[in-house]
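ok so i was messing around last nite and threw this chain in just to see what happens. nothing serious, just curious
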Amino acid sequence: MSAHDHVPPAGSGPGTEPTTAPEPAPGAPTPPAARRKLPRAVAVALATAGLLAVTATSAAVTVAVGKPESRPATAAVTAAPAASPSPTASPSASAAPAPTTPPPAPEPAPRSTVRGTVSGGRHDGDLRYFLLPIPAGGESYGPADGMPLTDEDMAEESDDGTDIMAILHQLGYKDAATRVYRTADGKAEVTVTLLRFTSAAQAEFFAKNDTRDLPSIEVTGDPGARGYIDRPEQEAYTGSMTGISTQGDVHYTVDVEVKGTPDKALLSELMKRQRDWLTTGR
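result:
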């Protein structure tokens, strides 16, 4: 498949952003619109099936959670003492402090209930558990835990109408999950997609035939990983990188979009972190 079109920065085209999505930082790539967004098609050259395409989905709805405001305490007012005290008069008393209402306790941060385990390269449990954790300050587009991908999600984006799911299941495909987030500095949008297979050999076979029609780049820190880069025609446009690799029975893809020419060091860092997470599960 051919490389995706270069995209001008935010503000250069029609349409508005959803009111629930995070506000983009200056110079950041345009966040996805409030609808289902599929990552770029994956060109898979299978020896028995020819050129196929697989894509994944992500959601584009960010839920803003407000925090309750603290209510300030009211200062107590003290009454003035009597002007001329006498031996028989009771001493004047100060007014008692007015009762105050303590501010409401902050709501506890939501905790993920998604769980998974890994042993000897076999990943069990919810596949979303193994998605690269969002770094501190990052903001998720859609559910913070990520989203599972149905067979319909995977099949509907086949470029040539081939029954991609029939072939995937012949290769031992089990399930898939994805998540999209924006980095804390607002400069990059990261999409992580995982595909789980019955065995490591099947995941490796799929990855071997998963290619991009783009210039290749080196990915350090992740043995066996392949990287691709799509440089923009102008620095004001969006550039992207893609990393592809496997760990055990999981095939993973990391897509990064930034304004201008991407730095391959960022992709290498993300690929290493994703591999480490899949290896240890923590």
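not much to say yet. The helical segments are 151-155, 164-170, 200-208, 264-280.
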